[in-house]
User: Fold this.
Amino acid sequence: MDVMTRIERALEKALAHASVPGAPRLLGDAMHYAVFPRGARIRSRLCHAVAAACGEDSPAVTDAAAAAIELLHCASLVHDDLPCFDNADTRRGKPSVHVAFGAPIAVLAGDALIVLSFQTIARGAMRAPSRLSPLLHTLGRAGGTPYGISAGQAWESEAEIDLSHYQQAKTGALFSAATVMGACATGHDAEPWRPLGELLGEAYQVADDLRDVVCTPEELGKPIGQDEHHGRPNAVQRLGLDGAIDRLNQLAHDAAASIPDCRGARDLRSHILSETMRLLPKELATRAA
Assistant:
């Protein structure tokens, strides 16, 4: 079974627990709407890639870890789009959850997806109990504060933003969780994998900043110019277009070099380099060559 099929099946299985008879229908529908149809699944695919490089020995644990990261990511998008934050009308080319279901259900859907991510790990790691604690700890760190996405969202309400802390929490936290949990799912020492996630998180943020400047809403499936509109820091504003492209290229190579020794290191390095540069908008790809 290919990785994307595994990811989608694991997510469908997780969401099925939210739509049992007797549960609030609108909430279950909103949660499903937030997760499907699929996005790029970058973080969950990264989790699978690390697990494979480490020598995956328990596919059910890997599937649960990757699904949990994706559920947490989808929850962050629901909350990020709310009127009290970005007030974004579209996400992935369709109306955002609060537009489709109303703000109260959107808030609850995001909350429920966060809880579901932990439930998914708990169910999936039953056969490998020694791996459960580090997986839960890593997921909690990625979602909370001071290092997780809750802190990242909170930085936007501060009078002054610490750029490094903001980007690591807002974007880097889930990438770090993906690499660490991929290693955790195989029973390997996980902390050496954190730098890879941190570098990829920054690379993704730079690429997202580039797309925010040069792409159209139709290409992105969401509003553009959000950083400028909300007065948030942006790599293109700080470094210029060519400088941001150079930074993305450097981060991709630093990330590949950071991969710990493992049986699949060579293939993973090649995968990281190609996937990171694919984040560039097509019209900028020749400038990065």
In short: DSSP finds 15 helices and two strands in the chain. The mean pLDDT is 92.
